[in-house]
Amino acid sequence: MSSVDAQIVALHAQIASCETQLQRLRDQLFEAESHRDISSGAATGQTPLSLVNVAPSSHPTETSEGFSHQEKGQKVAKIWPLDKHEYRRYGRQLIMSEIGLTGQLRLRSSAVLVVGVGGLGCPAAAYLAGAGVGTIGLIDGDTVEESNLHRQILHSTERVDMAKVDSAIASLKSLNPTVKYVPYHKRLTAEIALDIFDQYDVILDCTDTPASRYLISDSCVLLEKPLVSASALRTEGQLMVLNNPPLPAGNAQGGPCYRCVFPKPPPAASVVSCGDGGILGPVVGTMGVLQALETIKIITKGIQRSSEPPSLLLFSAFSNPPFRSIRLRTRKAKCSACSAQATVTREALESGSLDYVQFCGAVSPIDALAATERVSVVEYSRLYNSSDAAMNTQPSIKEHILVDVREKVQFELGNLEGSINIPYSAICRSSATASTDPLSQPPSEDGWVAQLRNLAEDRPIYVVCRLGNDSQLAVGKMKELGLDGGGTRWIGDIRDGLRAWRKRIDPDFPEY
Amino acid sequence: MSAASSEDVIPITVEFSGGLEMLFSNQRKLDFSIAAKDESGLNSNVAFLVRYLCDNVMKDPRKDLFVLDDTVRPGILVLINDADWELEGEDKYEIQKGDNILFVSTLHGG
């Protein structure tokens, strides 16, 4: 070895030694500075952590607590706990005592799963990405539809028909490219739930069916994950933080789960979807934003540290006051998921023996009428068009009566000429006993019944609705009320409703 | 016995939310008085209130969307003065003057 070579080796060794020393000094400096920061922020109740070693790439499920100096020998010198861009990007929340450096590091090292990328999931994921959550998983098996866009803010007109998960990630990446996004292009099922949930720290229930809500809650209990659950319909929303703190089943100090609050699912007939009931964008958006907020609170405070009593937040956009917080029960002593006597076990869930769909029941398609009481849109269109032609200028239907039983607001969106609107809600309220009881009949017979009696005499009544369900029930009710004159007048419905009319007869009929 | 006096009735507020108002003629909030004693002369409790609402206030014939097996159906939370009724004794809770009782149907949309 030449003297030059020896010199090179010696210099290498010297540099390495200096670098190690330098790294140690930097570590000590961070330590000292973070202690100073924490003592000055002690009033926030944050616990001192070893902040230095929360690496940006740390595994999603690792929390910052419990780490010590195992990375000390690392070659890469990091002067500041956050990257330069992170100070800038998160500066407005970093300077708040509720977040601070500790909170930001906890956000960065956390992984959050958003189940359902719709009206709740979109705003929730957007704010979580914006806040710098390290990893965001997104599960949804659906594709974007035009009717989603008024509320599902991560999707766009150009991305109609794209998988919701991909559409959302495209938006989120442009919002914050430094977050790791994990797509799951499928509907959540019991077979996959535990494997996926296991990789995350907090789960957000942004789904829209009771079956998925029970599955998500059970999985969170089994894996000891806090659950931020929200829902919305029409002008109202509800929010609960469940299983928080996420203590093992049987520990009464843990937060209640979905089954503690709702041990039995609601009857399937009482469950109304946004598609049927309607939803206002900012209402569901508000709830999704609140989910992101609760998630940020859980993460920055430190998972397992919740001391807030369980509550349900009710939002009613057209009430005053619009927000109301309700105190909820604690864990139920006999809860089938989170008590010591739980029957919802990992084995039961994974084997598929817990049939969530069956547990919650399905609404079987209504089949209330005989074939002779129903006509297809094609059959009806012949009748409709012939009477239309006969009437020429008069848009009334002389030979028969067409009753549209959709709610007034839907009727006004578009209806068949000559049809009469009698909303199903009014029909189902009418009592059959009232009209057969001679004493109570005169004052109690509803306006619509009298209207049909006077109008009709023996002309047949065709009943139509949006999809062909309410129309069947309305026919049944009309017969119960004696409008068929004991069989002298035909009353029946138009199968599959106005949806079929648009598909097969008139493509210009409005779709909503 | 004298005619009913204010001693015999309890003024309360009942509210409906989460779509239940549709079963009650779209009324979200009702202020009314309920008998202080139930059919058997016992202090009126929430179970009695639920029966009273079903028989006297609810015009919608779809009773099963509110009551099932003699109690409020699954999926409805009953909140007594902003607390889950399970914290207050459920349907055994005896109604007090000025109580606010809220019936909330759980929502599922998202």
Automatic annotation (TrEMBL), chain A:
Positions that bind ATP: 119, 140, 147-151, 164, 208-209
GO biological process: Mo-molybdopterin cofactor biosynthetic process; protein urmylation; tRNA wobble position uridine thiolation
Compartments reported by the entry: Cytoplasm, Cytosol
Cofactor: Zn(2+)
Catalysed transformations (reactions): [molybdopterin-synthase sulfur-carrier protein]-C-terminal Gly-Gly-AMP + S-sulfanyl-L-cysteinyl-[cysteine desulfurase] + AH2 = [molybdopterin-synthase sulfur-carrier protein]-C-terminal-Gly-aminoethanethioate + L-cysteinyl-[cysteine desulfurase] + A + AMP + 2 H(+); [molybdopterin-synthase sulfur-carrier protein]-C-terminal Gly-Gly + ATP + H(+) = [molybdopterin-synthase sulfur-carrier protein]-C-terminal Gly-Gly-AMP + diphosphate
UniProt binding sites for Zn(2+): 257, 260, 335, 338
Active site: residue positions: 274 (glycyl thioester intermediate), 465 (cysteine persulfide intermediate)
GO CC annotation terms, alphabetical: cytosol
Start and end residues of each Rhodanese domain: 396-510
Recorded superkingdom: Eukaryota
Entries under Pfam families matching the protein: Rhodanese, ThiF
A GO molecular-function annotation: molybdopterin-synthase sulfurtransferase activity
EC number, UniProt record: 2.7.7.80, 2.8.1.11
CDD domains with a match to the protein in the record: ThiF_MoeB_HesA_family (cd00757)
Coiled-coil residue spans: 8-35
InterPro entries xrefs: MOCS3/Uba4, Rhodanese-like_dom, Rhodanese-like_dom_sf, ThiF/MoeB/HesA, ThiF_NAD_FAD-bd, Ubiquitin-activating_enz
Function summary: Plays a central role in 2-thiolation of mcm(5)S(2)U at tRNA wobble positions of cytosolic tRNA(Lys), tRNA(Glu) and tRNA(Gln). Also essential during biosynthesis of the molybdenum cofactor. Acts by mediating the C-terminal thiocarboxylation of sulfur carriers urm1 and mocs2a. Its N-terminus first activates urm1 and mocs2a as acyl-adenylates (-COAMP), then the persulfide sulfur on the catalytic cysteine is transferred to urm1 and mocs2a to form thiocarboxylation (-COSH) of their C-terminus.
Family: In the N-terminal section; belongs to the HesA/MoeB/ThiF family. UBA4 subfamily.
Record-given protein name: Adenylyltransferase and sulfurtransferase uba4
UniProtKB/TrEMBL annotation, chain B:
Pathway recorded for this protein: tRNA modification; 5-methoxycarbonylmethyl-2-thiouridine-tRNA biosynthesis
Cellular component terms per the entry's GO annotation: cytosol
Localization per record: Cytoplasm
GO BP term, example: tRNA wobble uridine modification
Modification type 1-thioglycine: residues: 110
PTM annotation: C-terminal thiocarboxylation occurs in 2 steps, it is first acyl-adenylated (-COAMP) via the hesA/moeB/thiF part of UBA4, then thiocarboxylated (-COSH) via the rhodanese domain of UBA4.
Primary localization: cytoplasm
Family matches, as InterPro entries: Beta-grasp_dom_sf, Mopterin_synth/thiamin_S_b, Urm1
UniProt entry keywords in alphabetical sequence: Cytoplasm, Isopeptide bond, tRNA processing, Ubl conjugation pathway
Cross-link Glycyl lysine isopeptide (Gly-Lys) (interchain with K-? in acceptor proteins): residue positions: 110
UniProt-listed Pfam families: Urm1 (PF09138)
The protein's role, per its UniProt record: Acts as a sulfur carrier required for 2-thiolation of mcm(5)S(2)U at tRNA wobble positions of cytosolic tRNA(Lys), tRNA(Glu) and tRNA(Gln). Serves as sulfur donor in tRNA 2-thiolation reaction by being thiocarboxylated (-COSH) at its C-terminus by the MOCS3 homolog UBA4. The sulfur is then transferred to tRNA to form 2-thiolation of mcm(5)S(2)U. Prior mcm(5) tRNA modification by the elongator complex is required for 2-thiolation. Also acts as a ubiquitin-like protein (UBL) that is covalently conjugated via an isopeptide bond to lysine residues of target proteins such as AHP1.
Similarity section: Belongs to the URM1 family.
Name of the protein described by the UniProt record: Ubiquitin-related modifier 1
Organism per entry: Lophium mytilinum
